[in-house]
Amino acid sequence: MQLDVTADVFRLAQTFTIARGSKTEAQVLTVTARDGDARGWGECVPYARYDESLDSVRAQVEGLPDTLSRQSLQTLLPPGAARNAVDCALWDLEAKAAGVPAWTLAGLAQPGPMVTAYTLSLDSPDAMRAQAKANAHRPLLKIKLGTPDDMPRLQAVRAGAPTSRIIVDANEGWTVDVYADLAPHLLRLGVAMVEQPLPAGDDAGLEGLERPVPLCADESVHDRASLPALKGRYDMINIKLDKTGGLTEALALKAEAEAAGFGIMVGCMVGSSLAMAPAVLVAQGAAIVDLDGPLLLAEDRDTPLVYDAQGVHPPAPALWG
Questions:
Q1: 3-state secondary structure (DSSP) of residue 6
Q2: Binding residues for Mg(2+)
Q3: For residues 237 and 216, is the Cβ–Cβ distance under 8 A?
Q4: What residues does the Mandelate racemase/muconate lactonizing enzyme C-terminal domain cover (predicted)?
Q5: How many CA atoms lie less than 13 Å away from 81 in the CB half-sphere?
């Protein structure tokens, strides 16, 4: 088997800002797996928050042995972006070689479209109200908070999109006291869920805390080994393939989390349709889906995912799986 790694850049439709900074493009790595005439591919987004870079992830992939399977990969690489791209490439390769959809290989029911959140960029309250108004037709909006001026922004978004469901991503930017103070207002403004209010290393403070708005672990959950520490702190978990290290672990994490009583959110980094495609399989039946990466791009892969009023549709075989 041959693995090739290339770096690709996709321009964003507009500058995208969260509490940690802004970006104007999505920098991704594409892994292509070849075995004879069969080819499969996958995409990952190295994330500095997890001490990843394009160079470090490329080195992990290039260090893999020639003899490789999805099963052996789980122990050769840790959870993260490198394993994700390779794992998804191997799923695609196996599906193409067998002539069957990846969902069949995974033992899943045929997937359908899922309503996805649309993320509003962090900006001034007036600008966020304008963003919300322009996207008020969308059923689910996500806003990035985690700053001292969160309430004016949240109120502005609600004013701009009075009927949309709203979810909030605090990006580890709050404290227990800030969350406790904001919680009644979040409830009043119809916020359906809050992602990662506290830094991942400090979320023990959530134990026993009243949670009138459900809390979802993001940075605090990567794979199944993360789950035991989350009981009593979170109501949901956000599964991202770049954290789990691919579709294989993502499906296993989803099953174990559901058995443990957690609600499921399926999210993404800012990447192309290729990165979202396998996540659509994980997203089936999830309480919240946040696979809007391609909607933020000015350019995308050939044969991109279809987004319409029904949500994000499963990929065509020409794209993945």
A1: strand
A2: 169, 195, 218
A3: yes
A4: 125-216
A5: 28
**121 CB-near residues (< 8 Å, 6+ apart):** 14, 15, 16, 17, 18, 131, 144
Q: Comparing C-alpha atoms, which of 238, 244, 240, 220 is closest to residue 230?
A: 220
The overall pTM is greater than 0.90? yes
List residues with catalytic annotation.
Answer: 144, 240
Pick the CATH number of 2-99 from 1.10.10.10, 3.40.190.10, 3.90.230.10, 3.30.390.10: 3.30.390.10
Query: Taking the domain 118-312, which CATH number applies?
Result: 3.20.20.120
Q: Could you tell me which residues are annotated as the binding site?
A: 169, 195, 218
Residue with token string 């949240």:
154
Candidates 273, 311, 265, 295; CA nearest to 115 is: 311
Q: How confident is the chain (321 residues) per 10-residue block, as mean pLDDT?
A: 96 80 90 95 95 97 96 98 98 97 98 97 92 96 86 95 95 89 91 95 90 95 97 97 98 98 97 98 98 97 97 97 96
